[in-house]
Design a protein that fits this description.
3-stranded antiparallel β-sheet; globular
Length: 214
């Protein structure tokens, strides 16, 4: 546990501080990758990075298990296997919807996948909901959806799509900053959907989304 005696972190942004590129600093003061990278490293060892904060300071706790937990959210390895099993034939050009309220992240994902996939980007969760609820069942082969978003979280969006378009709900892959609250962990365990952790390596992103030729 690492603690400080600063002015604390506002409650409304505590769920976002582990997201890549999220920062409250002025331009030039940082790009918002430190905590997301730290969280990814901890998650890579099967652990969790969490925070509690008040007006008298913040406390960050790194928890590392002594053995892998069977209740852990899907790993990138299991995600890769699942996507490969569900992937269409390699001759098919996949249609991918990327939902992320951070334009910089969405832009990177689109640039990486455009050569092999038809990519649609939506940075407004409410607009993404309208798109999915009015879409045909085969509108998208994959839906890459950020878990923590304002206005409409990824888990809330998933539940709405599950109720109205269950076939599309089966194509969700969640993107996370690598550390999230207990409710988010329970949600991922219950859905058993694949998880792609940020910040993601470009080669790993391609391997998870683009099916390998037979």
């Amino acid at each position: 546990t690492v603690e400080d005696t600063g002015h604390g972190i506002a409650p409304e942004i505590q769920t976002r501080i582990f997201e890549p590129f999220f920062t409250t600093r002025d331009v030039g003061g940082g790009i918002g990758l430190g905590l997301s990278i730290s969280a990814a490293i901890v998650r890579g060892h099967g652990g969790e990075l969490s925070v509690t904060s008040s007006s008298r300071g913040s406390s960050f706790r790194v928890t590392i298990p002594t053995a892998p937990s069977v209740d852990s959210p899907p790993t990138e390895l299991s995600s890769s296997r699942e996507l490969q099993r569900r992937a269409p034939p390699s001759s098919h050009r996949q249609k991918v919807l990327v939902i992320d309220d951070e334009p910089a992240v969405a832009k990177v994902v689109k640039r990486v996948l455009t050569r092999s996939c038809d990519v649609v980007v939506e940075v407004h969760p409410l607009a993404a909901r309208d798109t999915l609820l009015n879409a045909e069942s085969d509108a998208f082969d994959l839906i890459l959806c950020d878990l923590a978003m304002p206005e409409l979280s990824g888990d809330a969006l998933y539940r709405e799509v599950t109720a109205a378009r269950p076939a599309l709900a089966e194509r969700f892959v969640f993107m996370t900053g690598g550390a999230f609250h207990a409710e988010g962990q329970r949600f991922l365990r219950s859905t058993r959907r694949p998880v792609l952790e940020k910040p993601f390596d470009i080669a790993r992103l391609r391997a998870l989304v683009v099916p390998s030729p037979e």
